[in-house]
Amino acid sequence: MEWLGILLLSGIISNVIAEPYYTIIAPKVVRPDSEYHVAASVTGVSTPSTIYVELTGELDTGKIFNISRTIVVEPYSTHILRLNIGETTPGKYKLTARGLSGIDFYKSKDIEYVHKSYSVFIQTDRAIYKPGHKVMFRCIILDSRLRPSIMRPSDVYVINWIAGPEILEGRITGSPHGVSTLRPDLGPPVTHRLATRPPLAGPYAFSRIPPPVWNKPRVFLMHDILNTWLFTNFSSGYNGKTELRREVPHSITSWVLTAFSVNDAHGLGLIEEPRKLKVFKPFFISVDLPYSVIRGEIVSIQIVVFNYMNKDLTAEVLLTNDGQFDFAEVSNEVHDVPKLELYRRKKVDVKANSGSSVSFMIIPRELGYINIKATANSVLAGDSVEHKLLVNAEGETQYKNKAVLLDLRNAEQANANVTIDIPNNAVPGSEIVQISAVGDVLGPSIQNLANLIKMPFGCGEQNMLNFVPNIVVLNYLKNTNQLTQAVQSKALKYLDIGYQQELTYRHTDGSFSAFGMSDPSGSTWLTAFVAKSFKQAAEYIAIEDRIITEALQWLSNNQASNGSFPEVGKVSHRDMQGGAAKGLALTAYTLIAFLENEESVGKYRNTINKAVDYIVRNMEGLNDTYALSLCAYALNLAKHPYETSAFNFLESKAVTNQDLKWWSKPIPKDNKNPHYSLPRSVDVEMTSYALLSYLKRNLVTDAIPVMKWLVKQRNTEGGFASTQDTVIGLQALAKLAENLSKNTSSVEITYKYGEGEGQGGYMNIRGDNSIILQKKMLPTKTRYVNITAKGKGFVLVQVSYQYNLNVTGAFPLFTLDPQVDKNSNANHLQLSICSGYVFV
């Protein structure tokens, strides 16, 4: 019978272990039309004990169920009592046991009633199959007495999935993609024969032609096998038995068979133990491939031949070429024009119950997936496999994104023209062009939430830079009523992890540094960053008040007498500070941390006033635009009378071009750094602070040109070039997007491209899909896109493209100069390597 659980009734009659001790074991459930077993044992007595066992029940029908027996249990032995349960009904059941002689006790326990159920049993006609063989399944529906059900038909569902990687004498087979269901098989096997052909003229004239193989064993071409082979259902019939035959897939692996049955009278029946079906053959090959390779590089294709027969074999291994790659020579000779070979073959000796490997060197010539077909033949057996190998373009990938924000609030139509600047020296075949549109300013960022919400890790600085985006996402989605439970749960989890992780970088004085107590002192910038961020996170997770208070106290204690906040610690990655490394910028940044902790403003009023006075005294004639943007925002938060003057001063530094506005640091004319042509992080950061100042002054309309410039600097994923500009940029855009999201967009976008703009397409932005980033691929030869938008609201259109460049002069330059020493020979190679970092 099926024991779902064990009921234990036991006790010691006295505190002395030598005294009588009893144990009653029985199932926790009772089923109709079954046997109920009770096991009773007694120790610590010298004579037999008499025990009374009773199973009673108050049935839902009002009737009383009762079965009782008296048993005699010999000392230090176990007695099994079998109670026959007839056709009974649900109710409240109780098992009672009482000692009548030899031992005195009384115990009772409630028993659960479970309606009798059915189970499924699966048999196969053998244990091991070869690929392509027929397997016979026999499915038997068992009732609660483990007998075939013959009452009425049941619907049976059989599911068969791969058992996962299985080790076969050192070889790992199986798919790395996990377990999935409801995926059909690839179909019947493909017989792979190598045909012969006469010599041809042209490039094929000197290719080696394979000999006839009609007299050799037929081999089956093994494709990649999906993880679910069989998912079928059938009726068991009135005898409770069914047989079906299926062909096993062409893979060396094990499959797990499971099934369940559905019956009108008895409900659901499950298989008690899945059955494993093993597919195996004594001679097979395996190809070891990397995930991807670069076009033009030499790749070693390793093929392993396995021989599980009881005699040694010599196998001929053949690698077939469909013209997608060249075979490479393992020599120092260089051939200007490689010849096209249809195949190469090698012979390998394979010991019995062992495996041997052979390698082929190839040079991929086509991009995308190429076919790797390998065949091995011996006098006794053969095997063949086919795999796909991904070939990527050579060179470094350059990612470009041109975004335009079309404002249709006061116009019925808006137009934009986008040019796609792909240089002539781009690697052929590496170009990708796409157009996308969304009705939300943060649409690309929302679409990329999987990367925005990241697990915090790294040092004290890196941890915080992964911590803050979680707060930005939560704030924006919550304020725009778009926050889902899934996103909230993940973000809250990561905030908790990031908070606990950051505490490991805390000093005993309340400050924070990149590596915690291993650093000589805390960092002013990082401590201010932590205090500000923890205050924002306190809305969503439990943050100890003393952590924020002690950080602010440490900052206050380290304030200079003139009111500034000098950097007293060391920051390992200064790029993460943006421009807030010293002077006014760092003072303003630290002041913002105090002002955003409103509950602490009164306590640290003197500290705040000294910092504000220092900023006001030193702003006259300030030429550092980055520091000016931070100071203007800080004075706005402080509501200082000089805030208007600071804002006007910042406004005078703005750069305008048509409908765009931004702030930028001048680029040295003699600087050859090519990265200055890219969106600069410091420009994005200071423009973001300027945008926050606009929003604090309720200048939403005036902020639109600033937002348009920021949107143009973003990458395809919705972020910026580095970490600090992404954190501040997203905060500023999210604040403005909250104001713009109140107006639902309804826009139809038409785009044209190609010669004479003869080709094109359209996308619709509505209220129900405004945050969905719609993407369309464009032909790789596209170099111009005309965009027309009609309707009402805002719409963001992006033309994203990428291409590869062969790097001839990297900047900055990392050099590696290996030199062969004189004492090297044909068997021993000794190198002297000199490396250097060049930044000019």
Automatic annotation (TrEMBL):
One of its GO terms (cellular component) is extracellular space. Pfam families: A2M, TED_complement. Keywords: Disulfide bond, Glycoprotein, Protease inhibitor, Serine protease inhibitor, Signal, Thioester bond. Residues 228-319 form the Alpha-2-macroglobulin domain. GO terms for molecular function: serine-type endopeptidase inhibitor activity. It comes from the Eukaryota. Residues 1-18 form the signal peptide. InterPro entries: A2M/Complement_sys, A2M_TED, Alpha-macroglob_thiol-ester_cl, Alpha-macroglobulin_TED, Ig-like_fold, Ig_E-set, Macroglobln_a2, MacrogloblnA2_CS. SUPFAM superfamilies: E set domains, Terpenoid cyclases/Protein prenyltransferases. Belongs to the protease inhibitor I39 (alpha-2-macroglobulin) family. This is Alpha-2-macroglobulin domain-containing protein. It comes from Atta cephalotes.
